[in-house]
Inverse folding.
């Protein structure tokens, strides 16, 4: 990771070393096999829980470590720095557990968070539908009240952890006639009758991540499973989104740094035309350009982390981080793969995985185009639009 960042103290760096050791010992030796299987086994989630990698910022009374935000950032950076994007702790911790911690009732927090921190319950968030991704307001999955229950029907797709998930935060319409003002968040446990998992979707990258379709055929859940306030779901999602985008930007930086570091090492070893690859001015200039962009991106990321900790990070600042770092990661993996030549195209080489795993970054969690739209709104506020 970039040296000399003032945002982290020695205790944070000690934790980083611990996280790095865990991922190197437990995840990376098995990742190729799990990519073939298309899923990461639950046992790894449990080990990660025991090692303190899940839900570190959740208060101790709910099973977490009560750690401050920077510990979460370190886990995200280190996940990125493994050079794989399949172990989707980020969805589980930074999104699902964070929603429950922020919006949940005392009973909900006690029911779900301790087992999520232990890796016994795996979380998923289900927003996207086959016809509605960027346009979240267009979702159709509905939950209608019948007495003390919601009856849910609809379907979701592209859901990370969809096969492993034990609980799903479902974004659905509780008052379809109200549009975005009729959206709610409802927790659905996977053992509810009528809940069904569809295909585990084959993907170009993130191959060990179980991305799936989910179906809800008149699934009944108690109204106690409502998360937050009924019909305020859209605003609640928007409230959490800056932090989520910051965490995506953070994982992206870890991954970018890894691609860069392994390429510098490769350039020093690879011999062509009787010289080292690193002796060519093209190689040196390419890597100097990338280093420049990477250092500037770390500085902006650290500024955003500090602002998140101070409670002042805005939606457009987070969008800038998400846009820039996603695009940077993709530029860097592409240039780095090029410097690997034909070996870069071989699946056995880590840069090859980094290349395919990076591509999703510009799409999921709000695409680059959506980020630009959000940033543009600060320039041309909608109330001034013709
Ligand atoms: C691997 C993976 C994992 C995912 N995990 C989850 C998950 O766990 N939970 C979940 O709910 N979803 C998940 N998603 C879905 C993801 O969030 C959506 O794919 C994403 O929001 C884009 O939506 P879409 O696929 O419907 O594309 P569309 O919305 O159909 O976008 C099509 C194109 O239009 C562009 N576009 C969109 N809006 C605008 C605009 N206003 N102006 C100009 N261009 C625009 C987009 O950038 C894109 O280029 C995942 C997706 C992938 C690929």
């Amino acid at each position: 990771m970039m040296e000399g960042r003032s945002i982290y103290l020695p205790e944070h760096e000690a934790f980083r070393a611990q996280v790095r050791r865990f991922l190197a010992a437990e995840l990376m030796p098995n990742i190729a096999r799990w990519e073939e299987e298309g899923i990461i086994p639950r046992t790894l989630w449990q080990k990660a829980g025991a090692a303190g990698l899940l839900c570190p910022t959740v208060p101790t009374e709910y099973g977490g470590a009560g750690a401050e935000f920077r510990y979460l950032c370190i886990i995200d950076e280190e996940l990125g720095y493994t050079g794989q994007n399949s172990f989707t702790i980020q969805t589980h911790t930074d999104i699902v557990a964070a929603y429950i911690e922020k919006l949940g009732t005392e009973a909900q927090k006690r029911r779900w968070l301790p087992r999520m921190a232990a890796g016994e319950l795996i979380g998923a968030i289900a927003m996207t539908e086959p016809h509605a991704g960027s346009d979240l307001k267009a979702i159709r999955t509905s939950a209608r009240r019948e007495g003390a229950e919601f009856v849910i029907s609809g379907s979701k797709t592209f859901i990370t952890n969809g096969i492993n998930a034990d609980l799903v935060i479902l974004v659905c319409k509780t008052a379809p006639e109200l549009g975005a003002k009729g959206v709610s968040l409802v927790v659905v446990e996977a053992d509810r009758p009528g809940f069904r998992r569809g295909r585990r979707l084959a993907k170009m990258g993130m191959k060990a991540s179980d991305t799936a379709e989910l179906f809800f055929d008149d699934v009944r859940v108690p109204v106690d499973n409502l998360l937050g306030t009924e019909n305020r779901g859209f605003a609640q999602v928007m409230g959490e989104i800056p932090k989520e985008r910051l965490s995506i930007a953070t994982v992206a930086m870890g991954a970018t740094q890894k691609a860069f570091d392994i390429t510098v090492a490769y350039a020093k070893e690879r011999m062509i035309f009787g010289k080292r690859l690193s002796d060519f001015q093209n190689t040196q200039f390419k890597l100097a350009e990338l280093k420049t962009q990477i250092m500037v991106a770390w500085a902006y990321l650290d500024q955003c982390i500090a602002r998140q900790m101070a409670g002042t990070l805005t939606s457009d600042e987070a969008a800038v981080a998400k846009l820039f770092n996603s695009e940077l990661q993709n530029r860097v993996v592409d240039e780095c793969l090029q410097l690997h030549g034909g070996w870069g195209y071989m699946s056995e080489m880590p840069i090859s995985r980094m290349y395919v795993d990076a591509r999703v970054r510009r799409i999921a969690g709000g695409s680059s185009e959506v980020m630009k739209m959000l940033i543009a709104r600060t320039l041309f506020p909608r109330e001034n639009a013709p």
Summary: The CA atoms of residues 5 and 237 lie 31 Å apart.
